[in-house]
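Subject: complex prediction, re-run

Hi both,

The earlier run crashed halfway through, so I resubmitted it with identical inputs.
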Amino acid sequence: DQQVKQNSPSLSVQEGRISILNCDYTNSMFDYFLWYKKYPAEGPTFLISISSIKDKNEDGRFTVFLNKSAKHLSLHIVPSQPGDSAVYFCAAISSKVAGANNLFFGTGTRLTVIP
Amino acid sequence: DAGVTQSPTHLIKTRGQQVTLRCSPKSGHDTVSWYQQALGQGPQFIFQYYEEEERQRGNFPDRFSGHQFPNYSSELNVNALLLGDSALYLCASSLVARDVYGYTFGSGTRLTVV
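This time it finished cleanly. Structure:
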């Protein structure tokens, strides 16, 4: 049962334009959400996160938006750069479940930024 | 400062065999989590080790077992390998169990079962 879903396997964007990556979740117990970036032959690296008490978090070119009622979050990258080309994973965790220390990941979206 | 080190990087095993994967956590980290990433899928949690004990386990059969050593390094063992065990196995370390923000992932071990 996939509790975190990324329905777009790939996305291509022109350099300088906005990239929008989407993520949906089904488990209402999730209260922290993270985005990871993964280059080939490397492990995922943490990019940005958001708590369920917020609806927006910004870090430089990266902004994550959370819509709790829709159980949807999105990552905006503005402006997109060729170095942003990677696979992006959405992940979620619940602080409400005792002993729950694991992340639930989506299937990833491969972003290609075209120079 | 070395990050998370996993070995080997690639491995080919025959169905029915056993395999051991190794992980050295980032310096200063004491918790190790293992994830399986099948082709086209996101990483799935296998288990987490802290203070040499398995603290939490995902939905994986008992064929998957692990160990953590006093120096915080960890092993993942898989018995009776199936073709479906072919995947990238990722190790993540952190300072405390719930510090997912502080997760550092290794580059993974690519296991192919033939």
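The interface with chain A takes residues 4, 33, 35, 40-45, 48, 55-56, 58, 90, 92, 97-98, 100-101, 103-108 of chain B (CB under 8 Å).

- K.
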